[in-house]
Amino acid sequence: MKQTETRTAGVLCNISSLPGPYGVGVFGEEARSFLDALREMHFRWWQVLPFNPLDSMNSPYTSPSAFAGNILYIDPRDLLRRGLITGEEEASNRWDGSPYTAAYDFAKERRLALLKTAFSRVTDALRSEIAAFAEKQEWLADFSLYMAVKEANDRKPWWEWPDECADYARCRASAAAYQAEVDFWNFTQYLFFTEWEELHAYARRLGIGVLGDMPVYVALDSADVWAHADLFQIDPVTRRPGKVAGVPPDYFSQDGQLWGNPLYDWEAMKRDNYRWWVNRIGAALRTYDRVRIDHFRGLASYWAVPAAAKTAREGAWEQGPGQALFDAVEAVYPDPAIVAEDLGVFGEDVTALLESTGFPGMRVVQFGFDPGGDSTHLPHNYPFNCLAYIGTHDNNTLLGWLWEAKPDERAFALRYCGFEGDNWGEGGYRSPSCRKIIETVWRSAARTAVIAFQDLCGFGSDARMNIPGVPESNWRVRTTKETLDGIDKAYYREINRLYRRDGENVFLNPAGGKPRL
């Protein structure tokens, strides 16, 4: 970043994890209360996971759209205020089960039905607003048509649709046949982004920026691949990839991770100066104040695995676009507020790309405690130009990590952070061992320190958000108002002040991410 930035701190909490009555968190009053709490503790950043629609396993990292918003985050109370639903209909979306686990199946069924009811009552004035919104979103026509055609074909993947639908150009020519459903999906995205803009504006008024997240890859069954198959490594006859995305063996998996996403055809993208990617990054810069690109190393070189392979071990490195992509981005969005997720398997090409872009990278303290090493993840090695994490959404909670760490790693971590005593296993938000580790990260030189809300609350490993390489039972962690109210806010306010992380957030300028005209 070229801007001069004061030291800051932030909290990682996905929208789905917020309290609320609807089975998953929404853009409602609970989100505003969460922001109020961040402000009270002098945090300057709220980090969220991708806003995109979820896949069948409820992951936001393999989405049917790189641009669209998740309709589960739309607040039913907003529909009630607009007069589009009744109180009884709003109540039908309320969940009476556990408040600690996201009820995705319930929310998906009820929210879609509720939105269709609301759409049936849209006024002419609102239709005009929706149409004006849709005209400004270059991606929306393809997404809404994709969703409409998918519903008409029993929600099968696009390559199993009849040829007149699977072939994007032919389908666009007959799009009028799906206009009613297209209008409905335009309506959902209008609601999503309107509600988000209101919440984002509230965050900015509090001096809190939003750090968004962008997955590098998209799902094979997505509007993006269907509409732009020529930009992906897709066989035009079979409409299937020969190679797919993954990562080699790493900290999280001895066999690597076989993600299965289609790979980009970077030569094809280069021919129009990476327009799809420039548009994607531009949309993210308009949505958030900063954007973290997940698996950034895949833009330097990427792990390509034969589609028939059983594990990611069978893959090989292939060259990505590198600096050429970001030259194209900077031509339209000068000095973009991007954070590079540079974890996992590293290489000289990733180092060179980070240096040439100047983007801050990441450090995760849990990765640093090798008793015999001098890891870059140890706080004394943190540069200013990085974001330092207690743990990411892929890590165990801090207390869970302490319990499950090897004895020599745990002993080294506690000694490094200055913890004395034998009560390291005490839980809760006042855990003395966890606080020593948090304070060590907060004292580091890193420009921004980030803590997950689970660690604010002192949760154990049962509150872990995601286990990489394990497809089921992830992304489900939620919290309650009572739990958030019980956080020791005075402690976090004090360490943010003490370690000078409560300064002004310089990224909250209205022109942030605005394209050069």
Q: What does this protein structure show overall?
A:
With 517 residues, the protein is an alpha/beta fold. Helices cover 38% and strands 11% of the residues. The chain has helices spanning 29-40, 76-81, 87-91, 104-119, 124-135, 140-152, 163-166, 168-173, 179-205, 223-227, 266-271, 275-287, 323-332, 348-357, 398-404, 407-416, 432-443, 453-457, 481-485, 489-498; strands at 8-12, 45-47, 209-214, 243-247, 257-262, 290-293, 301-306, 316-319, 338-340, 361-364, 386-389, 448-452. The strands form two sheets. It has an eight-stranded parallel sheet with strand order 9-6-3-2-1-12-11-10. The chain has a four-stranded antiparallel sheet with strand order 5-4-7-8, with no helix packed on it. Helix 1 (29-40) links the parallel strand 1 and strand 2 (45-47). Helix 6 (140-152) packs across helix 9. The protein is globular. The chain starts with 7 loop residues before the first strand and ends in a 19-residue tail after the last helix.
Please describe the topology of this protein.
Layout: E1 8-12, H1 29-40, E2 45-47, H2 76-81, H3 87-91, H4 104-119, H5 124-135, H6 140-152, H7 163-166, H8 168-173, H9 179-205, E3 209-214, H10 223-227, E4 243-247, E5 257-262, H11 266-271, H12 275-287, E6 290-293, E7 301-306, E8 316-319, H13 323-332, E9 338-340, H14 348-357, E10 361-364, E11 386-389, H15 398-404, H16 407-416, H17 432-443, E12 448-452, H18 453-457, H19 481-485, H20 489-498
Parallel strand pairs: 1-2, 1-12, 2-3, 3-6, 6-9, 10-11, 11-12
Antiparallel strand pairs: 4-5, 4-7, 7-8
